[in-house]
Amino acid sequence: MWDSWDDEQAEGTGTLQGKEVTVVLSVPVDNGSELVFSTVMIDGQVVSS
């Protein structure tokens, strides 16, 4: 579930292997047709950028 979402960042919670985690999407970039978040963090650890 997303707790907050704006042009700079989205933050929410989810379940990973039975454990509740915090998910943060950040670093928005323009892909040519829209803004997308380029960095994904789970519990403070970058998992994709």
Features:
49 residues, mainly beta, 5-stranded antiparallel sheet, 73% strand
List low-confidence stretches: none
What is the end-to-end distance? Answer: 21 Å
**Sheet with the most strands, sense and barrel status:** 5 strands, antiparallel
Strand content: over 45%
Give the mean pLDDT: 96
Q: Determine the structural class based on helices, strands and strand pairing.
A: mainly beta
Rg estimate, integer Å: 11 Å
Order of helices and strands: EEEEE
Lateral strand order in the biggest sheet: 1-2-3-4-5
Global geometry: elongated
DSSP helical segment count:
0
The number of E-state strands comes to: 5
Task: Provide the helix percentage.
Answer: under 10%
Query: How many discrete structural domains?
Result: 1
Protein model, in words:
With 49 residues, the protein is an all-beta fold. It has one domain (2-48). The chain has no helices and 5 strands. The protein has a 5-stranded antiparallel sheet, with no helix packed on it. A hairpin with a 2-residue loop joins β2 (9-16) and β3 (19-30).
